Amino acid sequence: MGMVRELCGSHTTMPIDDMETIEDLARHLQWIADASQSDAFIDCPLADERTALVVAQAHPTTAASLYKTSVIGQFAHFHNEPAVMFCLLSGKPMLGSRGTSQEGIAMQQNVVPIRSKRGSVIGALILESDISKHVEQERNVERLLESNEQLGETLLSLAMSEGGMQSLMQEGIVLFDDRLKVTYTNAQALKLLQEIGCTGSIAGRPIDEMFDGQLSSIAKQEHTGVFRSEFQTKHVALELKAVSLQRDHGMVGGFILIRDLTELKEKEKQLLVKSAVIKEIHHRVKNNLQTVAGLLRLQMRRTKHEEIRHVYLDSINRINSIAVIHEMLAFEGMETIPFHDVAARIVKTIISSSAKPDQRIITNVVGDELILTAEQAMTLGLVLNELVQNCVNHAFVERSTGEIEVSLQRLGDDGRVRVSDTGLGMRDDGAASAARSGHIGLQISETLVSENLGGTFELSSGQFGTQVDITFPLGRMNGEQNDCYY
User: Fold this and answer.
1) Which residue from 50, 27, 49, 51 is spatially nearest to 40, judged by alpha carbons?
2) CB atoms within 10 A of CB 14
3) Is domain 2-132 given the CATH code 3.30.450.280 in the classification?
């Protein structure tokens, strides 16, 4: 605190008891800074009424400080901190005033007077906080408003020549004045207006008479933002964007951008037709596959050989698995397929057609939704059919109950499908590959996963059942490998 008395004694005519008052407040200055999260100062007046002396300073420990170095002993001038000088001269507090720190940073000041025991002003307590970011935001807003006004004036007053940049634009440009009459149209706008039947001179024509009155809300000043609309005739489709420019709460004009959508609309119609045709093709393929499955089912019922019946049934289930994919493509009309529903339908179909009447096999399809391409879904559907069919035919051959679970999981860019059962397990070595296991369904599955999905096929089996894990990249497109096994 000796620094406070030394500075006051060297630069002011302050009596000893006033210095003690300043010293007593300076002892609590750090608490004040921490509580207010601001830089705290005590300034004392000098003989020059436009200058004050910084006699005490405290940086907040609860917030960032405005200052990198101490400013004790430096002078505060009127042009940088007018609020401090006003407070010292008038004895009145100044709250929310703006100024510039000794280090050139924009700040907000709260200043209150420090009075002696006799009531005279002997100093000022100052709390300062950084508002440089706020000031910069205000400047950016001012620049934006100024640029917007200049742009509006330029658009309204620019005399555009036909050889200028506007002739290269694809959009038609129509400018109108405060009387809502056309003052300018570029070549593209003239061409589009003529195509919709606007003949004769366009200049001076009211905008509410154009486009069958669709711009009436602009004309009536009912719409002050960006007005968007589409205008269609038998042969032409246009997109309209109209903007009214305001100044002092009044319209000073505006502009209309006209874009030709005729070709785009025609392509949209063609896509809708193609989509409908593709959906119909999938629907007919699904119907044809179901017809083939029905014929095979009739043949199966006529045979008395159990082995042949199994061959028929395997073929029917494979056909039905493919039919499920085509049915979803026909119904959704999408190029990708959510596989969770496909898996549930395939499992349900196999259990209902292959399980014995006295068996109770519980099935669960759980996990994430895998979005697959049609080729991926077709391949994975066939693989799932083979695996579930194997579970029904072999895992529960000596049991009346059992459980089959199909788990779908997304692992980053890969997908994993796990088929597990609670059956007897494989009679041969559980670690053997599918190709050496003697099961044709597993051989087909391993081949499809490797060649069509570019994935891996892992099989494990034991006394508590069998588990197959299929991992494959979700992003793989089989455009170069469409030779599926059906």
Assistant:
1) 27
2) 19
3) yes
